[in-house]
Amino acid sequence: MCLAAPSQITHIEEGGFMAEVESFGNKRRVALIMVPTAKVGDYVLVHAGYAIQILDEEEAKESLRLWEEILCSQNS
Amino acid sequence: MLSEQLKRFREPQLAKETIVKVKKSLQALQTYQGHKAIFMEFCGTHTAAFSRTGLRQELKEYVTLLSGPGCPVCVTSAQDVDRIIAFSQIPQAIIATFGDMVKVRGSEMTLQEAKACGSDVRIVYSSLEALEIARENRERPVIFIAVGFETTTPTAALTLTKAIEEGIDNLFLYSLHKATAPALKALLHSELTTTDKRSTNIDGIILPGHVAIITGRKCWDFVVQESKIQATISGFEALDLLLALEDLTQGIMNQHDQVGNAYGRAVSEAGNIVAQQAMEQIFELQGGDWRGLGSIPQSSYKLKKEYAAHDAEKAFTLPALPESKGSSCQCGDILKGIKTPLQCPLFAKSCDPVHPQGPCMVSHEGTCATYYKYERKL
After folding, report:
1. From CA B92, how far away is CA B157, in angstroms rounded?
2. Is beta strand A18-23 parallel, antiparallel or unpaired with respect to A5-12?
3. Which InterPro entries does the protein's record reference (chain B) (predicted)?
4. Which of A3, B106, B116, B369 is 20 to 30 A (C-alpha) from A10?
């Protein structure tokens, strides 16, 4: 029920309420009002027709970097 | 590119290496605690993710992963389903609902069966589609069955706000939205912590990642600070789940005083403020019935008085509802993590996804449906 699909914003409609997003090759219209700072090219999580969050690229990088560090120390 | 990084959270090789590390940590935790750890995943999407990725099986010698009450369809009471069916029998009414709800049995029938008897029931993916149906059918009442936790609640609030702005007065909400934190509190203070200590007591909680996007991380600190149980917010990819298990394990051994956040790319400290404001604008918290958990104070999002004109419960008078019947369905105990589906006498016998007896078998993310698909011994 609480599934949310990562999707990339391809077009923001006039007024900013709706946007077109692409997820795994599928395009669809979603409401953008919950993430007012989102811009074209951003990745958002979409739930029940609404983008609910902009994914933070730096945080994603940081999680992966932390893991690689942990695994490196384990393997060495 | 972010998309490349997101793919890495599913990368098999990285996950394999990580599993080795997590197993070592869980072994250390077992030594530290003197027993194998018991973790509960609150959220049904996590239940499905642990089974789908094979992690529940892979790690079963190292950690017992119990499912919690985090499937909004599953915790909807039979009486509430009866009300939905009664709404569907109002002349000219159109019911707009998420797909899972049509298969949940009330005291006598499902919404699907009501549809077969002539009710106009339409499955929607978003409340915005319900608004569209209302725009196209201005002469008919359109009742949106608003189900879900905080992830979904603000979407219904914002759709209703838009309907009001547009003057669409034939859209009604039957709000069954529920708040997750009061349920977790109730669960942690129920028999789980008072009965036989080690058979049911949980050592750590994996908190719902998409609910936390809305609520933020810090509002969950009560779990650690009041209930004295470690907890970590998790994402839904294989690597996210492993990261959360590691964080939870370290949290217990190092006695962290805050809830961990292993889903930093999506969950912030304070959450989504626009969503929180939208919920506060439209809804207020009241007591609510949860299947399996009973009545929980301040756990149910109901429309505020000023929105009574769009509140299906206020706008329509329903006939007397059927009396609920007893059943040997174990959904109640399964939702509390006391039993697994394998301990229910109906599981995979008279209850399966085609003929579900209880709601945990109905929803794709219900614990029983997940176990039926992934964990059943054939």
Report:
1. 24
2. antiparallel
3. Hyd_form_HypD, HypD_1, HypD_2_sf
4. A3
**A63 chain-B contacts, CB cut-off 8 A:** 243, 262, 264-265
Strand partners, B37: B63
H helix or E strand, kind and range, residue A54: strand A50-54
Q: What is the ipTM of this complex?
A: 0.91
Furthest-apart CA atoms within chain A: distance in Å: 54
Closest-CA residue of chain B to A17: B162
Size of interface A-B (CB pairs under 8 A): 135
DSSP B136: H
Domain boundaries, chain B: 78-180+291-315, 331-374
Annotated domain spans of chain A: 5-75
CA distance B118 to B360: 27
Q: Which of B74, B92, B93 is nearest to B84 (CA)?
A: B93
- The arithmetic mean of pLDDT across residues B249-270, rounded, is 96
φ/ψ of B195, rounded to 5, equals -80, -170
Q: Where are the beta strands (DSSP E) in chain B?
A: 37-43, 63-70, 94-97, 120-123, 142-146, 171-175, 204-208, 230-234, 260-261, 283-290, 294-303
User: Model confidence over B309-354: pLDDT tens digits?
Assistant: 999 999 999 877 877 666 788 888 888 888 899 999 999 988 999 8
DSSP state of B16: H
> A5-75 — its CATH code?
2.30.30.140
Contact in structure between B331 and B13 (CB atoms under 8 Å) = no
- Homologous superfamily of domain range B78-180+291-315: HypD, alpha/beta domain 2 (3.40.50.11740)
How many Cβ atoms are within 10 Å of B297's Cβ, its own excluded? 12
Query: Tens of pLDDT along B295-308?
Result: 999 999 999 999 99
Give the number of other Cβ atoms within 10 Å of residue B252's Cβ: 18
The string of pLDDT tens digits covering residues B174-224 is 999 999 999 998 888 765 444 444 334 889 999 999 999 999 999 999 999
Q: Which of B176, B152, B150, B171 is nearest to B161 (CA)?
A: B171
CB contact under 8 A, A34 and B148: no
At B339, list the tokens: 């039993």
Q: What is the dihedral of CA B233, B236, B237, B243, to 10 degrees?
A: 20
B80 is written with which tokens? 């509430």
CA B65 to chain centre: 16
**How many CA atoms does the CB half-sphere of B342 hold within 13 Å?**
9
